Amino acid sequence: VYCVAAWNTFVVPHVDGEDDMPSLVQAIGNYTANSTILFEKGVHYNIFSPIKFPVLNNVEIRIEGNLSYPTDIAAIQGEFQYNVFIVNKRIEYLPFRCSTGWQVCESVFFIFDALSHSCQRDSLVIGNSSRLLTSNQRLTRLARIAFTGGNNVTLRGSTDPEWGWIDGQGQAWWDTQNQVNRPNGIAFSKISNGVIRDMKIWKVLYSGYPSFPVLFLTKLRQPIAHNFATSGATNLHVFNNKILAASSNPNVSAFPFNTYVLTPPFLRDCKNLAVMINSDGFSAGGTNQLFENNYVVNGDDCLTVGNGAKNIHFRNSYCEGGHGLSIGSLGSGGSVADVENVLIENVFMKDSLYGARFKSWTGGNGFARNVTWKNIAFDNVRMPIYVTQNYWDQDTGPKPNSTTVNNTHVEDFLFQNFVGTINDDPNYFEGSCVSDPCWYYVANATGREVVIFDLYPNT
Predict the structure, then answer these.
(1) How far apart are alpha carbons 359 and 361 in whole angstroms?
(2) Extended beta strands in 172-247, E state
(3) In degrees rounded to 5, what are phi and psi of residue 5?
(4) For residues 457 and 459, what is the distance between their CA atoms, to the nearest angstrom?
(5) R_g over Cα of the chain
(6) Nearest-angstrom CA–CA distance, 143 and 47
(7) What is the strand order of the sheet 90-99 is part of?
(8) Strand runs (DSSP E) across 42-167, as ranges?
């Protein structure tokens, strides 16, 4: 006797000019298992409010219609508010957002010790209850599409080149260089046995772009901040996706790396704790994750492998215009890093600041080990191989002079078969630079180095 569970399909309804997310939020409780949630082909959906999926099991999200983020910058920024008050000689800063769709108010406390000028501990408050975060928990930026957990979950795009777009509406932000409270893209978090396929974060092309192959078949246009994050996911396959986080205006670039939400000036030391946002292509966190046949044009890391990541494989992909294939940053604020078994291979890098890159903060702890970059072809890349234990935040002031003996250790790093051309322009300038010297400045470097190791003894 075989028992087969019934399969359900929910077609997301649409009303022209209205937010289509409340109807999905209202219905989602009936489709958390053995279901397909379908954005129907031929329909232009409005994602005017973020969607946060509950825990899902055996569910496929199929994006066959076109989805669009809101165009009203002020409305998006208004989703976040700021309060400051003093408790027990500490200044506590709360950016918070209340989602009317879920009727939940989420508040994040960044606690700053006014006496020692250091960040202490975070608290997460939901409603009237509060709890302290443990040392291994991380606060994440609100994503427009967020998954909170589940098993056997697929996020699938369309095979029709005219449909399956997700329009991030980034150009207006870039044209005004507005970096306050930018929304992130898709957080595929805490999913076991998940798939992300045929998605595209697509940007309207201008004459400088080549024609893109039909292999990448779903589009997500003009993303504003980071694109795909896979924190806490296990046994994940991510393939045939395209990210085009680049400006179509040749006079205005997309946002550079590591821009921040608005922070009161006396809390500058707390920013690295939790409110950093960026335009990373894939932010890999979790275990047993395979990324392949992906195409990324952006302004920050093509791939970034975060703390706690293990058994990450990134291969057969294209990266253009960003900050490389990166491990880290690790060890911020003295945190303990744990990254191991990462293989990055068969990747073409074009017009990037870095090729292979490792970055950890002075004073960090823990280790990164068994990391391989091989068969990396590159064209017009400034620093093909760059490893530093002196990563720092240019927005908080000059590079610190640290006497700490702690550093995130590196072990068993392999760089194999790198072939290409470097950008040795003596007047080279990368748009993310806002300090003098720039954050990527290397003392005594000539601009013709293929490999730069900036490491401490015995680490």
Answers:
(1) 7
(2) 184-188, 191-197, 200-201, 219-221, 228-229, 233-239, 242-244
(3) -70, 140
(4) 6
(5) 22
(6) 12
(7) 81-87, 90-99, 104-113, 118-126, 129-132
(8) 44-46, 51-53, 56-63, 66-68, 81-87, 90-99, 104-113, 118-126, 129-132, 143-147, 150-156, 165-167
Quote the CA–CA distance of 277 and 261 in Å, as a whole number: 8
Residue 22 corresponds to which tokens in the numbers above?
Answer: 């409340």
Structure tokens belonging to residue 378: 């590159």
What distance in Å separates the CA atoms of residue 167 and residue 143, rounded to the nearest whole number? 14
What stretch of H or E contains 316?
strand 310-320
Q: What is the separation, in whole angstroms, between the first and last Cα of the chain?
A: 60
Q: What SS3 class is residue 91?
A: strand
Those residues with Cβ within 8 angstroms of residue 271's Cβ, 6 or more apart along the chain or in another chain: 260, 263, 393, 395, 396
Alpha helix (H) residue ranges in 241-317: 271-274
pLDDT at 199 over 70: yes
Which pLDDT does position 73 carry in this prediction?
A: 76
Cα dihedral: 401, 119, 142, 324 (round 10): 20
Host H or E run for residue 26: helix 21-27
Q: Kindly report, residue by residue over 12-61, the tens digit of the pLDDT.
A: 999 999 999 999 999 999 999 999 999 999 999 999 888 999 999 999 99
DSSP letter (8 states) at residue 267: G
Locate 301 and state its tokens. 């890391």
pTM score above 0.85: no
Nearest CA-CA partner of 82 in 224, 262, 333, 280: 262
Decide if 183 contacts 84 (C-beta within 8 A). Answer: no
Please, what sign has the CA dihedral across residues 67, 279, 382, 357? negative
Residue 362 is classified by DSSP as T
Q: What is the pLDDT of residue 259?
A: 27
Reference 396, options 276, 226, 223; nearest CA is 276
Element containing residue 349 per DSSP (H, E): strand 336-350
Q: Give exposure, 255-271, as e/b (b: 16+ Cβ within 10 Å).
A: bbbbbbbebeeebbbbb
The answer, yes or no, to whether the previous bond of 437 is cis (omega within 30 of 0) is yes
Residue with tokens 């082909």: 41
